[in-house]
Design a protein that fits this description.
Length: about 575
């Protein structure tokens, strides 16, 4: 691959993130989205909406405001100098400046992978270039020269008044040669991997075709569930994972027939229940600095693998022992009993599995030391509630230690579980040490300090407040057992309340995190020179101090809720007030 193609590949990757979406207009001036230009057999679809709206929304975000802060100016100058160097190389290779190149997308960008029946996978990309036709023509001239130099052959034909160019590459099979097809219609260039796909797009150009991807029920359900402020997001995406997998297996089976057998296991595993997954991403909305939504379309009732992951919705909020200093809190409610039953059913499907199945194996293991029954002594004692708390490490001089992490596993029968835990700790050779603390038994382990210190740390676990508490720092377990925190409780803080007002009363998953705590370590690493190893042309020491950045950052939150037709996942960042 020559340098032009390498630059082109990089540009396309950038385009997939930054390009906008403006609709094609039909004869009656009604907008036609690319989803209506595609046939129904779409397995992957990505659409990036209006670039002007994207820029306007970016300016309203915390990072957009930060970029305009005067303290950020020295670093912006570093970026501009680096871009000037890149622009010179781009212009030398392509004959157009980097600025002109980035101005090309002035309308819609979309990308799709199709699974046409009985044929190999195909791909298509749409790009509206607006008033930048001269730049596009110059790039196409360069691209066609590079293709010709690499031995590709071209063929032109006219379809419904539109010139369609097909490039055929050497090295492909005679039955299915590798191709690149493109055409320009109105202000849009369409690039496809085969001629049939290009023709299918042209046949739907007026938006009146009766058989399109836009009519896909699962796709429309995802759009409905993932709207932000009653609109589609700045990025919309869709994947049919099972359809994509089946098409890939069918294509591979043409070369290796044994691979066709893999598809036989999809149905009994219950994977066919997952019909589609997709979502949207948005920023600078009325309510959020940023927000992303993902919806899994799952056919009910589920079975097989899907039953391993059942998360009933319950009321979830941080307990009082979680300090307001916590940088992150995460909670999930898992149906452990259902997961065991699903695992047992899946185990029975294994060829030559023992007649008694998973239950017999568990019974046999329970007869061995320390004579603990996985189902009766452990799983049946768990409530299914699992919480994770992260507390930022305190600085010792100029050095920052390791963050404290606590995992709290809810118990239905703490007394019974304590008895089980005692059996395990009394086993000869058990590596931990036990000690009494505030009426509870703490089990300590020596672990390395991952922050870089040569001195080991003491991790610990104990049962308290109807939970099994595990931490990489035993002092955190002691704090939980005492019921005290370093300051007020997180649940009473203004930061958490700003997040909680957007989380449903009952959810399967709930989370809170401070973006400043998460970003500070990365910021200091970049400013310290580590980012310069990847981008040596930029002086990262000119980044402003993190204190000037921190004021722009707000807490993030997230949740998941089960619905009749699937599961909705939402993550968001609050707006600065």
């Amino acid at each position: 691959m020559n340098r032009w193609l390498r630059v082109g590949t990089l540009w396309l990757a950038l385009a997939a993130v930054l390009l906008p979406r403006l609709p094609v207009f039909a004869a009656d001036d009604e907008p036609v989205g690319t989803d209506r230009l595609l046939p129904p057999e779409v397995a992957v679809y990505v659409s990036v909406p209006d670039v002007d709206e994207l820029k306007a929304r970016w300016a309203k975000t915390a990072m957009g405001n930060l970029a305009e802060d005067s303290t950020f100016e020295p670093f912006k100058q570093e970026i501009m100098k680096a871009l000037e160097g890149v622009s010179g190389k781009v212009e030398e290779e392509l004959g157009v400046s980097l600025k002109a190149l980035l101005q090309i997308p002035s309308g819609e960008f979309a990308f799709a992978v199709l699974t046409p029946p009985g044929k190999k996978l195909s791909a298509v990309m749409f790009l509206d270039f607006g008033d930048n036709e001269k730049t596009v023509d110059a790039l196409l001239e360069k691209a066609e020269k590079a293709l010709e130099d690499n031995g590709a052959e071209s063929d032109d034909e006219e379809i419904d008044g539109t010139k369609v160019t097909t490039w055929t590459f050497k090295g492909g099979s005679p039955q299915q040669p590798n191709k690149l097809v493109y055409f320009i219609k109105d202000t849009m260039i369409v690039i496809s991997s085969d001629l049939a796909t290009a023709k299918g797009v042209l046949n739907r150009w007026d938006g009146k075709h009766s058989d399109t991807f836009a009519d896909n029920d699962n796709y429309n359900l995802i759009l409905e569930k993932c709207q932000t402020d009653d609109e589609d997001g700045l990025i919309v995406w869709y994947i049919n994972p099972i359809g994509l997998l089946q098409a890939g297996l069918a294509q591979a089976a043409a070369q290796n027939p044994q691979l066709a057998l893999a598809g036989v296991f999809l149905e009994p595993l219950g994977l066919f229940s997952l019909k589609a997954v997709g979502g949207s991403a948005d920023m600078g909305t009325e309510q959020f600095d940023s927000v992303s939504k993902t919806f899994l379309v799952i056919e009910q009732p589920t079975k097989g693998v899907m039953n391993l992951f059942q998360f009933p919705a319950v009321e979830q909020k941080p307990p009082k022992w979680v300090s307001s200093n916590a940088s992150a809190w995460f909670s999930v409610n898992w149906d452990v009993s259902e997961a065991y039953q699903a695992a047992s059913s899946l185990f029975a499907m294994i060829p030559n599995a023992p007649p008694g199945g998973l239950d017999d194996i568990v019974e046999n293991l329970a007869q061995q030391e320390p004579r603990v029954h996985l189902k009766k002594d452990i799983l049946e004692s768990l409530s299914g509630r699992i919480q994770v708390v992260v507390e930022p490490a305190k600085k010792k001089g100029d050095e920052k230690g390791q963050d404290r992490v606590v995992v709290a596993i809810g118990l239905k029968d703490a007394k019974k579980f304590q008895s089980t835990l005692t059996k395990i700790t009394n086993t000869p050779g058990f590596p931990g040490k036990t000690r009494e603390f505030k009426g509870s038994t703490i089990i300590e382990f020596e672990v390395p300090d991952l922050s870089g210190s040569l001195e080991p740390k003491m991790a610990g676990l104990a049962i308290g407040k109807d939970q099994l508490m595990i931490s990489n720092d035993v002092t955190a377990v002691e704090s939980m057992l005492r019921g005290d925190t370093d300051g007020d409780a997180l649940v009473d803080s203004a930061e958490y309340k700003a997040i909680a007002e957007h989380i449903p009363a009952k959810s399967s998953i709930a989370s809170f995190s401070r973006s400043d705590s998460q970003m500070e370590a990365l910021w200091e690493m970049a400013k310290g020179g580590q980012a310069g190893l990847l981008l040596p042309m930029i002086d990262f020491e000119k980044l402003p101090s993190f204190d000037s950045v921190k004021k722009y950052l707000t807490p993030n939150g997230g949740y998941a809720v089960p619905e009749k037709k699937g599961v909705l996942f939402v993550s968001f960042g609050t707006k600065k007030k």
